[in-house]
């Protein structure tokens, strides 16, 4: 369980720290879709 939480934290924080660069590179909406596509499944897996 701790490993799942750490994986989620690393991906979520890492993607959040790249937000400015990612939005400039691919656009705001595309970055948010990719962020959600990665973050939500990891969150659900961690909770369930």
UniProtKB/TrEMBL annotation:
Residues in NnrU domain copies: 1-47
Entries under InterPro entries matching the protein: NnrU_dom
Membrane topology: Multi-pass membrane protein
Gene Ontology biological-process entries: carotene biosynthetic process
A GO MF term: 9,15,9'-tri-cis-zeta-carotene isomerase activity
Top-rank taxon, per record: Eukaryota
Keywords carried by this UniProt record: Isomerase, Membrane, Signal, Transmembrane, Transmembrane helix
A Pfam family annotated for this UniProt entry: NnrU
Signal peptide limits: 1-16
Record localization: Membrane
CC annotations in GO: chloroplast; membrane
Name this protein carries in UniProt: 15-cis-zeta-carotene isomerase chloroplastic-like
Organism in which the protein naturally occurs: Trifolium medium
């Amino acid at each position: 369980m701790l490993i799942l939480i750490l994986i989620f934290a690393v991906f979520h924080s890492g993607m959040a720290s790249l937000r400015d660069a990612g939005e400039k590179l691919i656009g705001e909406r595309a970055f948010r879709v990719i962020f959600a596509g990665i973050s939500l499944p990891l969150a659900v897996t961690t909770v369930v």
